[in-house]
Amino acid sequence: MTCRLPSKASLFVIFLSVIVLAGWLGSRGLAEPDEGRFGEIAREMALQQDWLIPHLNGVPHVQKPPLTYWITAVFIRLFGPNEWAVRLTSALAAFGTILLTMYIAGILYGKDCQWKAGLVLVVSTGFFIVARLITTDMLLTFFITAAVAGVIGYMRNGRRPWLCVFYMAMGLGFLSKGPLGILIPSITAIAMQVEQWRRHRPVVRLYWFVGLPIALLIGLSWYLALIHRDKSLFDYFFRYELIDRVASNAHNRAKPIWFYPGVLVLGFLPWTTFAFLVLRDLWRRRRALGSADRWLFAGWVVVPYVVLSLVVSKLATYVLPLMPPLAIIVARWLEHPDTRDRWRRPARTNIICLIALLLGLPALGLIPRIHLPPLQELPAGFWVAMVFAVASLLLLVRALGKGLPLRPFMLWMAGTWACLILTLVSQADLLMTGSNRTIRMLAQQIDRVDPSGTVPVFAYKARLNGLPFYLRRFVYRSYSRSDVVLPLEGELQQRIVRDEREAALALSSGPAILIVKEDTYLKTPDLQDWRRVGQDGPWIILATRHLSPSLPPSSPSLRTPGP
């Protein structure tokens, strides 16, 4: 196969991807609890030299395979422990996923579909959000997409390096998050083989008996190493992390069967209307995709979606690996001869709904338990950008009425939506007021109260995973079964607190700082003797009257060396 240079439209999509993924990547603090957890684990790994067993606040943390931690720890060593370096893993994985999606679309449907698929994916809201979060999901999505690209490339041109990509990517996907890294690409490949068999064509051999054990060996290598150290971890990995996650609510993540449709409706904005039309056409006419491609996407999208829906434990990010194939399907529908003249009316409807959504956001304050952020504190530039986005969408509706072609429509829509979501990201620390709010400002206040960084800090009935990341030291925190897998030994038995009231009483006899939610503080008489020295959002900072910055350290520290 000859190497083809990307079209100008594809180069624009690549350029837009760089802007969208890199813009304000490190401007906001790490969100709680996931970003704080991943960031701190990678920081401790980079400093402690232990690359086999991840640690969170000094506690062994074996709940997730370590590939994301390994890559992020390398970036921390290169660029320091900051938000930009921590998120670089997901941003680069997202960029790679976009390139792979464009490659697959180009192989299947040509250059016109190639750039459209990349453009649909890069500004899809759900993909954009996860691309700027440090979690395992984007790295998993990258390896799943790479594995699918490998099997498609091998079946199309027979080159064995693509088969190596298929199995290597599956193994690394397993090492990123777990069995989905092998399950989704395997189902996709089997579906493609079944289609060949149904059409009485030679079935391409994938050498499953050689490649699959290699993929499993790569994916299971870390698990086997840990089980070799501690045999009790086999039961934890197999029963609690696999069986209980699939068949029970042991992880407190049970969601109704309609959870994922709602996630995809919001996560696929601003292209959701087109996705609905694709589903309708596939159901009615089945001509938007070829027969072979229907089997490919059935294995890549439909079967994994059914499996994920049947699993009891559900999170919005679990469907992220389905977004690249959905972007390709929507791109194909937009440029297909049977549908390319029917997109303008749904496009206008889609944009009007988006405008109504943006203008209706302030009405959320009327809903009980929803507290709007202090909008008056947002800078003038934020409101200018929001007005620009709404005005741009209104002008786009008018241009569609005058016969705007598909290419300028998609570029206009993507540029406007990218501007909108980047504007929101630039003020995320102020806009996020719920449980995911960053504790970066809280840590800054603690540093002002204790500039020497030597006084014990206790997160009272809270996890606050990012607190050690920003304070550059261990903190006392409440015991959580989900965070403690192996038995605690030595000093950890005191620092990981099972009885919060007893620990607070013990710390009150000397210099100490305590972080607690305001409503918990008001309901706890034992804390009334502590001085209130700061607050950020729902969290307040308490200090004992013995606090003195000049005292020697009274708890182990894990500080970043150097200035």
What strand line-up does the widest sheet have?
5-4-3-6-8-7
How many H/I helices? Answer: 24
Mean pLDDT: 87
Which residues form runs of ≥5 with pLDDT under 50? Answer: 549-563
Major pleated sheet: 6 strands, mixed
In quaternary terms, these chains amount to single chain
**Total strand segments:** 8
Observed structural traits:
563 residues, two-stranded antiparallel ribbon, six-stranded mixed β-sheet
Structure characterization notes:
This protein is mostly helical. Helix content is 60%, strand content 5%. The protein contains 24 helices and eight strands. The strands form two sheets. A six-stranded mixed beta sheet has the order 5-4-3-6-8-7. Strands 1-2 form a two-stranded antiparallel ribbon. Helix 1 runs antiparallel to helix 4 (83-109) and helix 5 (111-122) packs across helix 15. The longest helix is centred in the first third of the chain and has 27 residues, at 83-109. It is globular and about 80 Å long.
Q: What's the structural blueprint in terms of helices and strands?
A:
Layout: H1 8-22, H2 34-48, E1 55-56, E2 59-60, H3 67-79, H4 83-109, H5 111-122, H6 125-131, H7 137-157, H8 160-176, H9 180-198, H10 208-229, H11 232-247, H12 259-267, H13 272-284, H14 291-310, H15 323-335, H16 344-360, H17 380-401, H18 406-426, H19 428-431, H20 440-449, E3 457-459, H21 467-471, E4 476-478, H22 492-495, E5 496-497, H23 500-507, E6 513-517, H24 518-522, E7 531-536, E8 539-543
Parallel strand pairs: 3-4, 3-6, 4-5
Antiparallel strand pairs: 1-2, 6-8, 7-8
